[in-house]
Design a protein that fits this description.
112 residues, 29% strand, binds zinc ion
Length: 112
């Protein structure tokens, strides 16, 4: 699969900008990462300039994708995705932080 074909797949999954509903066909698509049968695409709306990240998984049954709206640039996304792996210390820090917040699930419930 070459770059333009992958772009076509992304377009099929996310055809319109979630912000302004503009068609993505005139927008910009970058393939940021490819790993096995999945790839990460970055789409920029030509109309309102908002960007979404699309993770696409190619399966024999078809394509599965999810998209998130992001305010990161494509370069920033790549920087974060190549950052070091999460170390056990990081997990402990988060655990410590969460335990000070009380019951996390309770907080989620209260939030809604
Ligand atoms: Zn837009």
């Amino acid at each position: 699969m070459d770059q333009s074909q992958r772009g076509q797949f992304s377009l099929r999954l996310v055809q319109k900008c979630p912000v302004c509903n503009h068609d993505y066909s005139s927008g910009k698509i970058q393939i940021l990462d490819e790993e096995g049968n999945s790839f990460l695409a970055y789409l920029t709306c030509a109309n309102c300039n908002s960007s979404i990240l699309v993770r696409v998984l190619t399966l024999p049954q078809g394509l599965i994708g999810n998209a998130i709206l992001t305010d990161l640039t494509a370069d920033e996304v790549m920087t974060f995705s190549t950052e070091r792996q999460i170390a056990s210390d990081d997990v402990l820090v988060i655990h410590d932080f969460l335990s000070r917040q009380g019951d996390l699930m309770q907080n989620f419930k209260n939030y809604h």
